[in-house]
Each structure stands twice: as C-alpha cells, then as structure tokens.
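Cross-posting from the modeling subforum.

Setting up a comparison between two proteins and wanted a second pair of eyes on the formatting. Protein 1 (sequence, then structure tokens):
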Amino acid sequence: MRNWHGEGIWYGADYNPEQWPEETWAEDVALMSRAGVNLVSVGIFSWALLEPAPGRYEFDWLDRALDLLHAGGIDVDLATATASPPPWLAHRHAETLPRRADGTILWPGGRQAYCPSSPIFRERSLALVEAVAGRYADHPAVVMWHVSNELGCHNVHCYCDVSAEAFRRWLRERYGDLDTLNAAWGTTFWSQRYHDWAEINPPRSAPTFANPTQQLDFLRFSSDEQRAQLRAERELLTRLAPQPVTTNFMIGTGIKYMDYHSWASDVDLVANDHYLVAAHPRPHVELALAADHTRGVAGGGPWLLMEHSTSAVNWQPRNVAKTPGQLRRNSLAHVARGADGVLFFQWRASRAGAEKFHSALVPHAGSETKVFGEVCRLGADLKALAEVRGSRVEADVAILFDYEAWWGVELDSHPSVDVTYVDRLAALHGALWRAGVTADVVHPSADLSRYRLVLVPTLYLVRDAHAAALRRYVAAGGTALVTYFSGIVDEHDHIRLGGYPGAFRDLLGVRTEEFFPLPADERVHLDDGATADVWTEWLHAEGAEVLSSYADGPLSGVPALTRHAVGVGAAWYVGTRLDEAATDRLVARLLTEAGVRPPVPAPAGVEVVRRRSADRSWLFVINHTDAEARVAVTGTELLGGGRCVSELVVPAGEVAVVREEPAKEVRCSSSNGRTPSWS
C-alpha cells in the first residue's frame, strides 16, 4: 500500500472544468482558496473529451486545468475517466451494452452503459488509463489516482451472452467440475442438474423462483467483475505512476451488491460516497452507521469521504435542502468517525444535465449565499483540526456485517418478506447511538478480541470458521448478542439441519423447531412489557437462561430472549423483532454486562465520539438538538472556544472538538465562531 497521509484534513469536491468556459476557471481557483479547499477530483466523466475517437487523445484542456490548480495550491485526485464510456464505443460495439434479466438492452444516454464483463470495454478503458497515467504521472498537482467512479452503481448486474460466458468461467474457477457445482446448487431439486457448462446461464427471468444458490453465486460473480475492473486499472496505475490509488465506494444502507470488505485490499485508501436519505426520520444516525461501516472496511484506520452534498441532491423523489448548520454537522460527524478528508459532489452546480439541481459548494446563486458561507466556515474548521489526521476512532463494540448474508437473507421464497438485513443492523446501531456508544461495523472474519461486546444482526448466511470465531470470542470472556434468522444456512445457502439457529445453536444454548412469522401489522407482547412484531419462533432453551417470554400471540409462554453462559463470557439471543424502546433497554443491559460506557455522558441527541492517537485524544461533540448541551471535558476546544476546564457548553446545532487533558475546575463555552463565554 502506498502512503496517502499528509498534513491536515483534505477538503474539496469533484471539479468539472470541462463543463464551464475557461474564463471561469481562474474564478474557481480563487474561490477554492477562499473556502480553504486543498483537493479536487478532476476528469471523472471526461472520457468523451479526452478520447473523441478511438486512439485519438486530446489533453490540452486538462493540461491547462491541472496547471492552473497547481499554481493555486490545489492538489488533484485525478480520475482515470473510465466511469462512463463515450457514445462512439457503443456505436461501434453494441455488444458492450449491458442487458437486464429480461433481455432489455440498456442504451447510452445516461452513464455506465457498459457490460462489466466486456473484453472490448476492458481493452478500451485500460488504453485510456495508460494514456492518462503516462501523461500525468509526474504532474506536480496529482497526489492521488481515482479509478472510475462508483463502480457498479447502475450496471452491477449484466445478463448478456458475454456476461453468461464470464459467469461460466467464474464458476469453473470456483467449483472445478460440474459435480461439485451441482452439489452446491442443489440441482436435484426441480430437475436442474447440469451436464455441460454451456447449459448454465445467469439467473435470467424465469417462470418462477430461480435457484437460490445460482442467484447467490451470480451476485458474488457480479461483485467480482466490478472488482476486476478496479484491480486492472489499479495494477496499471501502480506500474506507471507513484501516487496512491483509490476509488469511491458507496457504503450505506441502500447500496447492496458490491462486497466492499473484499475490495478494501485493492485500494491504498478507502474512500466513500454518502448522501442523506431525505425520508429517513434520523438521517444523522444513518450517517453515523455508514461512517462506522466505512471505518470497518478500512480496518479501523482513517478513510476519505469522497462525496457528500452541501444541501439537496437531485435523484430522490423529494430532494430536501439542508437546514442552516446541517452541512457542518454532517461533515464533522464523518470526521469524528474516522474521515481524514471531506469532499463533496460537486464544486460548482451544473447548468445542464441530469444533476443540474444537485447542490454544490458554489450554487447557481453564486458565492454570496448561505451554502458558500457554510462551505467557508467548514474549511476553517477542517484547517483547525489538522492535528487529528491519522488518529483512530475509539470503539469497544463491534457489529458484524457480511454482504453475502445481506444477499442471502433477501432472496425470494423465504418465511417473511418483512425480514430484511439492514433492519436489525440499523436498529441495534441506533440504540448504541442513543446510548452514546460508538461501534465498529466489521466483517465476521475480523479480529474480535479487542471488543467488549459483539452484536450479530440477521447473519442468515454464515461460514463455519466465522461461527467458530464468535464462539471463541464468547468463551474467552466476550459478550455477544445474536438476533433472529441468523446462522440458518451455510455459504451455499443450504439449511443447517438439526434446528435453528443452525451455526449458533450450541453457542446460544437454544433450539428453534419452527418459525412463526407474524402477519403484517400484527404485534405481540412479552412478559417484560416489550412489544414486538414481524417475527416469532418456537424456541426451546437448551442450557440458556430464559430472560423473557411471549405473553400473548401464537406462542404465548415460549421464550423470546435468552442468555447462555459460555466459558467466561455470555451469548444472548433475541428471537423476535423488538420495538425501539425494548431494543434500547436490551442494548443498555448488554452494555452494562460488557462494561461499555460512552466517552462522556451527554444529553439525548448529542453525538460524542473520541478519536485517539498514541499520545493524544480528541472528543467530538455534535449537538443535533435545539438546546445547548453541557458535557464534562477538560482541554482545548479547537474550533474557536479556547481552553475549557471541567465543562464544555455546546450551543444548539453546533459542534465542538476538544483536545483532551486531565480535568480541573472551571468551564468554557464552545464559541464556534461566536464570542466565547467564560465562567
């Protein structure tokens, strides 16, 4: 891995000078300097300009743009420009276009109109990478390479004949022979046994449910094909240029089909795009989950926020603008949770195209606006936080997350369509957020020994090695919680026989003989006062202590929550979908048992996260409420509040960051650009 750390926090945006008259560029650089911008991503969607015809390259405009940025002190994350092919590629090679499962061709006119398995696309894209890297490897502005852009955002699955042949090759490498594949796919069911590799296709539209393992393998294959493009470009860049290489992941609750845990080793730094979902009731909590997951993909180390928005986006049904101060809170929340850079899409709001109503650092109304004023304030904040760069987030709790489990649990013909993967993940993470506790969201293969508490939400598909690792963790003194519909199948989506929850049955000391999913809108009550819905199951305690049972519903008297002592640790199981209040109470019990506390106590709605280096620590306090908040901390407030002793006062909607030191006796206020108040 090539080192990507420098001085200070990166700050900037996607910059698309090709969309604007060249006389605008000097103004852009001047405004960037005013805002504190020090890094921009350039060239992401410029293939059609850089290569207007096959093999004919035109770099003059990009030369001038990079030279101007360098003269203005702005570093560049230079894109390979392969994110979307030019119209001439499809015109000459229609076979490169992707197809849906029903055979519909996806034509040019948007973006990413290419089959990920197309050898023609791969050849032409790598030729462009070689030309761009060969020209700019030594350019002084270029500090990083940006492979493609949001790989798989719109074309992650292609069902064309080219993809079908690539899928067969992938299957040969995975299984070796047809007997092994037939066993893995359970093809004795519904007369599906294959006798020739040529008989196998992607799971195209069929009369009824497709083979579930075929579907699962196609999802694995599709993620691997996107990863293959990343690896091919990265290999070429590594050979031709000295700068570190990244690409922008899309880690969040809505992006499902790229296995980013497997991709992380292919980049020098993990970068992520995150956008608030306007319809989410608590978008800042969902933001925290995405950031914690990104940090988990990055192995706990710092990462780069490559894109988020200054205000509204353009692609949701209702694109809600951010309220005053929200831009700053969102950005600094990412930094609190490990980001060492904050970038946006995009620098200047577009005049034309599908994203013309997407917000930017410089809006259509210009620089004398609320948005640009907040952009400048954030730039000053990030400059003041330079010393935080390279530190790590403190977390004593892990939440296990596996993309394959997500894919598996949401396949068709399951007990209930209401059981979804992200649901319990978000519920448990939200309970931790409300308790003021930070969690790492990590893959089941991660080292769990450093955590006091491990949460396992809906891990439907689990490998033997990962189940064994969780048992070792608990036996050694850890505390774990497993939720319903976990441990059910192996990596081939085959049921683990002998009773649910399969792989975790012995660890949890329980056995479920039958699922009893609930009808829509039906609720049951537990004897501890909790309310639950969606799911119940006929559970038997086989060594576990019963903590609560159903008080009504189809399984009145049957255990719903259990605890099983294993070695010197304990494994808890919840066999139903608890409401939010009951989930909060359960998580509070787990935190108490595991000895986990928040960094400092804080009022409800106030986010507190600690980052730590070898010799220093910083406390981020983000006030999402409309009242001032007081937290006990002593140190230096870096965003304008000066030194605080014993108590920090954070005004409504504001953010404070304190370099901590031992407590003394008076208090200070976080000014955040206001006049400090001392007492």
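Protein 2 (same layout):
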Amino acid sequence: MPEYNYLDEVWRRLGTWGRYQSFQIFLQLTSVLSESIHLMVIVFIGYRPPYQCAEVENITSRYEVLSNSSVTTRYGACHIDVLLNGTNHTIMELSPCPTGYTYGLQKDRTFVTEWDLVCEGAERAEVSQMLMMIGQMVGAAFLPQLSDKYGRKIVLVTSQIVLFSSGIGAALLPTFTCYAIMRFICGVTHQGMAMARAVMSVEILPEESRYMAEVLGCTVWALGLCLIAPVAYVMQDLSWRYLYLVLSLISIHSLLGFWTFDESVRWLLANGKITEAKRILRKAAKMNKVNEEEILEVVDHAGAIALKSKLLQGDNQTQSINGKELTGHSTDVLPKYTVWTLFTRRRIAIITLIMTYTWLVNSLTYYGLSLSSASLPLDRFLSFFLLSLAELPVALIEYFTFNRWGRKWLCIIFHAVAALSLIAGTVANYLSDKPGAEVALMIFFFIGKLSIAGSFSTIFLFTPELYPTNLRNVGIGFSSAAGRIGGMLAPFAGPLAEKVSWAPGAIFGVMCVSVALLLPLLPEPTGHELPTTVEELEQWYKQHSGIKRRKPLNINNTAELNDVKH
C-alpha cells in the first residue's frame, strides 16, 4: 500500500485544526454526547426500586371469618401470605398482588414503577432493553452499507434527527408498547450515528492526527455519562418522563444538521463526485484563510496522474469517466462493495473475524460491568457517576500513547490489563471474607472498567482504519452488529453471579486474554494512510501484519507533492 495519500496533503495544507475541520469535529462531538445520553439514561428511567404488594383493606378480618381463627398477613414482593396467627402455617397465598404494588419511590419516578414491570411483568422491562440492543444490531448491520453507498452525511444527520424524535416520543407516548417501539428505533439510529460519525472523524484528518478524533470522542462520551447522574439526581422528585425529555432536548441541534454538516471529501472523491468535493474544499480554504488554488492543485494533479495511468493501460472506460463531471481531472471511481466482500477475500475475512470477536468481547464485558454497578455499596447516583468518571483517564492515556505505541498494541495492553484485573477481582470475590477483600474488589472493578472502556474506545478508531474507503462503514458496522450480541448477553451476568459468584469475572477475563492473543495477527494502521481499495488493503496487510511494527516512510511534504505532480 502506498505510504502517501494526496488527501492527507490536502488536509495538512488546509491546517489540520483549522476553523473548518475544528467546526466539523465539534459537530461530530455533539453526536457523541447524544449517543452516550440516549444509551445510558435507561439506568435511571428504568431503575427498579424495592417493592412489595400493596395493602388490601380488611384482608385480615375476612380470612379470620373464613378460618374461624385469628390470622396475620405477610406482604411479599410478588405475593401476600395469610398465616395462622403465631405460626408459619400458610392458609392462603395471594398471587399476583390483588391491589398492585407499593414502591420505594413515587409511582411515576421510573417507567418500571409507572407500568408495574415487576414480578410477572418484569420480563417486559427486560424486553424493552433487549429491543434497544436488537435495534443497535439492525442499525449497525444495515445503516453503514447505506453510508458507504449514499454518503456519510445523510446517514449521520438522518439518524440524529430520528434519535432525537424517538427520545421525545418515548418520553411523551402513553403506553409501554409505544415506549418499547421508540427504544428499538433509538437503538437503530444510535448505531447509524456512531458508525457514520466514527468514519467521518478519521476521514477529515491526516494520518498523524486521526487519533485525536477518538481522544476527543472518548472524553465527550465520558462527560456525557457524568452529566446523566447529576441531572437525574436534581430531577429525582419528578416523573421519569421529564428526565428523559430534558436529556433528549440536548440533541435538538440535530434539526440543523443538513445545513451544518458537510459530506466526507474522501467519500466524494472515491465515488467520482469531484465537483461537490471541490466546493467543500473551497469552503474549507475560505474558512481557514488558505489559498484555495494550492489546495485544488493537489487534487487536480492526483486526478491527472490517475487519468494518465488509465490511458497508459488502454482502459476503455476513459470516455465514461470523463463524462462524469470529472472534466478530464479525476480520481478513480471505486467499486461498490457489500457485506459479502468482507468474506470473499482471505485477508479481509481474517480482519473481519478478529474484529467481530473483539467487538463482541468488549460489548459483553463493558455492559456486564456497567450493569453490575448496582452491586457497589454506594448510592446509585454516586456509583454511576464514579464509574463514569473512571472512563475519563482513558482519553489522557490515548493522547500520549496512540501514536507512540500504535492502535493495535494499545488495544492489546488494555485487554491484558482488563483480563488481569477481572481475574484478580474474581479471586478477591472468592476471598470476600478476608480482611481488605472488599476494598481490593472495588479497586479491581474500577481498573477493569477503565481498561475495557479504553479498549472499546480504541477499536472505534482501529476498526475503520483497517478497511478501504467504500468498505469502511460496512466493516465497522458488521463488527459493531456482532458486538450487540455481547450487549444482549450482558444482563445475564447478574443471575449467573448469583449462582456461581466467580463465573462472570472469570469468563470476561479469559475472553479478554483471547482477544489480546488474536490482535497481533492484524496490521498496525498507525503511521500509514487509509487504504482506498481492496487491493491496497491486501498489499498493506501482507507487508505489515504480525508482531513487529514497521515504521512508516518519513517523506517531506513538499517532496511528496512533487512526486504527485510528476
């Protein structure tokens, strides 16, 4: 694969963090804020407080007449026991609760309490969360293909608007069925946003700065999670609908998306839309106060080289290419790939299988640990806030190590640390009766959460860098869709821990070890330009996969441009 990509020279000449790029990255970061809030608000609006059967009037006197003896009643979570006075002998068990339930919170504080999603109805609450994960899987499987085919912008902005609308709808619609449908739609569009945004972020920056998109995204994600707890705490005496409505309104900026976002220039050029790409580059040059002719010169020379190459090869499609708004200066129009391409080429299939498994393990471990936060001996608002705060150091670690150690090795280290801490936490849990075991368990729990959050953040940058332009969204989408399976399995970690306390930590730890052993088989994208075609990717994989990291060529930018010109 060539070490040089003329588009990276374009972004460098524009100024990597010029006004244009900074504004577009800022818009993408607002999407990250919406993603984190809509996904994790369920912790508070779906909270299940302590509950029991509501009292029944005159129940004691009625059964005293029937039994011809004095009785007492015992109110349980899902049934009422009528006992002979002074004994444990049950005369009658009333199930389900005849007059509903009483909760440790007011009736409208969560959707669980509002719709009595406990006891026999408890599975409906789990179904609503399952539908969210299924929606994410559907969105990750199909929307990235639309993004590669029709453009990043239309998928990102449409998903933003629909996510905002589904949040408002879930907060206002009166029935649980409507709420569940809205959460499914929320899951679909959540992944459409996440996948398109991740790809657009890496495509707007040159190689040496791509890591900053994920560093900033990781920071905003953690800050979004930290925001949920204090807002929920302030609004804890109001209906859950108000909380969801207020947090959903943070996404109202999405209504302006079609006017504020620009399409990815890489995607436009890769698909032969030269006129539109040049229009955006002129706009960027004007915002950054750069000579636009110098920017367009790079594109024109690269297009001329591509055209000359096709003429020398006797390509009989030259006329049709010249007729597609290219006016004699063109880059190649890339073929349209599909999800099947991920498995029809051996090296791409290896990348896909490894990254699919990596996403599944990350999702299972991350959500498994997050859903276990209720087991911490802290207030639910404080425990969620502290667990969210634990993710902030990830951005700092990535800032100093992404380009120094590389994406692949940082991901391996994160998984190795997560595995060690989870296995150590399992041992501490097994020895919970020993002095200091609970403190050790808390420490290992937080280290494990930080590490798996770090690996999750890293693969959001690592995955799209492993695929060519017109397969990039499909690749990250397929891997993310598999990750949703891990998210659907995560809720079972709690019941498993009740039966075998050491099992979840041991399973998570072993799976993280297996990922750390598989990742060295992949190429290291740090220091290399994004691949454009499948052929470039396969050549790059052949030369750069394995344990040893190859150093990229360090060519002076001016010399590189001269190479392009000549």
